[in-house]
Amino acid sequence: MSDYPKLVVRPPGPKARDIVKRDSERISQSYTRYYPLVVESGHDCIVKDVDGNEYIDFNSGLACLNVGHCHPKVVKAIKSQCNKFLHYANTDFYYEQTVNLAEKLFEVTPGNFQKRVHFANSGAEALETAIKLCKWHTRKHQFIAFVGGFHGRTCGATSLTASKPTQRRNYFPLLAGITHVPYPYCYRCPFGLSYPECNYRCVDFIDDQVLQKYIPPEEVAGFVFEPIQGEGGYVVPPPDYFMRLKKLADKYGLLFIADEVQSGIGRTGRWFAIDHWKIEPDILCAAKSLASGLPLSATVSRARLMDWEGGTHASTFGGNPLACAAASAVFDVIKEEKLLENAERQGNYIIKWLADIKEEHEIVGDVRGKGLMIGVEFVKDKQSKTVGADQAREVMIRCWRRGVAIVTCGVSTLRLIPPLTITKELVDNSLEIIGDVIKEVDEDSTSG
Ligand SMILES: Cc1ncc(COP(=O)(O)O)c(C=O)c1O
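Above: the input record for the complex with pyridoxal-5'-phosphate. Below: its predicted structure, written as tokens.
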């Protein structure tokens, strides 16, 4: 039986406190810091802080470490590339590492059609690429995105983003031509309806109230969506949602652009989350876990869409050879270690376990997810469904203090995203802590 987590001092310990103080005086404080976890090292599913505490990592470096911290094969691939060359502007010259990686990517991205890929460095850049590619190819400049969506922090990506006002405040005017429509958030249906009686009103609404009322559909390039909303609260659309949305897209000739930056690279037990709906997007954006923590993003599109000319779009470090070597190893590891299967197995086990304890606790409103992309939405009480932001925050902090590093998303959702390598033993150790903490917070919340 694994004996993680191992805590040697109440976090944050003295070294962590000192570094956080120095950070607070020197580093931009625009980041979203959840709690003072100051990392010293990581190994597989364990992250160690500078004071020697070892936590079970339910964050995966914010969904970037699907194959775990410092996977030996990834490290070996990076070291081997280090001895060859570190950089040589793939924007201006050639090397084989990007071509090899493209071939591996095309094998697992949905769609049995010819593809091309543009490499960049971050999720936001992958979305910028998608926006510019759509504009270039279609000569159309409007997009439909979704309330609750998160697509990054550059100006174009921020324009698509709509999950928290603070992400947009003081930044207007943003990119023109982006309209946000309701996402299928069934637990809090924006139309006050219930699935399946709703008969997908959220899709019809886009047609009869948006495209037929005020946005000329012939000016819209496409839909930009997360197959499962991440920062918006781990919201999973119902079974036929994307099939219906795709039908609508086809009716007006709109492109389907899937942002799989958080949900991709095996996170949900499929290579990409959209595979659960058996839909083939025209453009797919991947980043985060693609290179196991090294900066790399990919915008994969139908080959015919990438008809732009030399000089129209590029990024100096995009497709960096170290990152490509790491990504190439990530694909091998996921296949060799059958991590899609493990994600599905451990994920189903966690979801069932959480669904069972949901019945016992007033503050657990909803449990949802696919594979190891799991959300627990907290409420003040089940009847009113008033958001339980304090409860979610309290659960997060107490879990961390007991050795499970985990964070929230949306307004009141705890997200469970351990590496896909996680074992049943570590899952059990973590669930015991998470369960105890939820019980305590539930008792505090309902008694106070
Ligand atoms: C779905 C999604 N898209 C885009 C991004 C932006 O990625 P990055 O922070 O690498 O720019 C994120 C980051 O959390 C994300 O979750």
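Notes for the reader.
The radius of gyration is 22 Å.
The pocket of pyridoxal-5'-phosphate is lined by residues 122-124, 127, 150-152, 226, 230-231, 259, 261-262, 287 (CB under 6 Å).
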